[in-house]
Amino acid sequence: MNNKQVLPKVIKPRFIKGIEQAYMKIIDIEDEDTMKNSYISDCIIKKQETNEVSFEGVIFNKVDFKGITLNSLELTDVRFENCDLSNASFIGAIIHRVEFIDCKLMGLNLNDATLQNVYANNCNGQFVQMNYSRIKNAVLSDCIFENSNIQHSKFVKVEFRKCNFKLSQMSGTSLSGIDLSNSDFEGVGVGPEDIKGAIVSPMQAIDFSKLFGLVVKP
What we know:
6% of the residues lie in helices and 32% in strands. The chain is mainly beta.
């Protein structure tokens, strides 16, 4: 059996030249709004629920999305920098060529979402909900996902770099071919079929062996 990790080739977001000059502030988002080629900074999106909103070629810098619900959201070529998306709901979102840099993602709901070509760095994603999601070509680096729910999801070419998944629930999500060795999976809820084929450290191998009913003799 070949357990070699297949590393993702994440395609970066594409922005127009000089996008910083397209600076604007938005306070409200309406149903079916479409926003393209904009640099949005230093504002608060009022707590609300909207449907079928799309952003394309947009950079959000220091924007507060806390508690907002965006149903049927589409994000293409988008970067979030120093944003707060805590407890926002993006259920069923389509997310393509998107970066999350230095963001708060605590309690963000991405259930049933489709994510492709996604990069997240130095983000706090404790209590994230990502059940029944599909993630392809993604790199998660130096992120915290403690106590998260990532169950019954599909990972294709996903890389973890020094992430914290302690006490998270990941049952029904296959980790086969993914290198877990430099991330923290202490107390994670997985079954033997989920961890089969994963790349782990010697210490993790001892911990995960308990899932197979093995007793490790000191």
